Please model this.
Amino acid sequence: GGASALILRTEGLTVRFGGLTALNRVNFDLQRGEIRAIIGPNGAGKSTFFNCLTGVLRPSTGRFLFNGEDITGLPPNWISQKGIARSYQITNIFPNATAIENVRIAAQSRRHGWSLLTHHRAYRDIIEKAEAVLEAVGLRGKGDEMAANLSHGEQRNLEIGIALATEPQLLCLDEPTAGMSAAETRDTMALVRRIAKNLTILIVEHDMRVVMELAQRITVFHYGEILAEGTPEEIQRNPRVLEVYLKT
Ligand code: ADP
Ligand code: MG
Model:
């Protein structure tokens, strides 16, 4: 049921690419309202994990439950309708549309699914929603700019806005501060904290200051498996984590 504390559970989630096991029987629990960071070396399976949760990839074996419902292998648009959204490690926006159009398209897909035959909610409501989302991600006043003309940091925040416009319960952010200046990173951290008041956040992040400051709990992936899990304090002094990750 929707009121349960457990929003996400994966059971034995496994992804193989030919001979390579990118995720190996991952059992992962996430509580509603948490900010959880996922860390681990390059190639550990972090993006693959997000790809499974958002329907981009179908796991080889295993399943995951969202609000207690098995939605493994549903296509991305259905998973979006269920309430999981994500941003990509590499920015994924429509560059030749304006900022507001990028958000509006996402808001509309949430309300109506993908069918043009479904009843149309008033255009005005969608625009209002899109404007509220732009404001929430710090892009107020930039709605009419082409997405391609926004700064790198603004584009990354626009992508968070696109995800937010689908009204998710769970937002998966894949390296949201990658390539950002120190000031942009601080802004994005503040943004994540603000939006975390209303939803659950899974964040893959390499910047350890960001991770330690934002996350309530951290899960460490290593070679497709969970190496450790705990509070930032526990992870920082976990010898196995230090060995594989923090020292490098
Ligand atoms: P991370 O995000 O932790 O850096 P990834 O999930 O991107 O790691 O990748 C995990 C492993 O799976 C890596 O060895 C990567 O090369 C491999 N991999 C990821 N996606 C694919 C794919 N579509 N086809 C083949 N191998 C892949
Ligand atoms: Mg990745």
The longest helix spans residues 99-112. The two ends are 42 Å apart (CA to CA). The first strand starts at residue 6 and ends at 17.
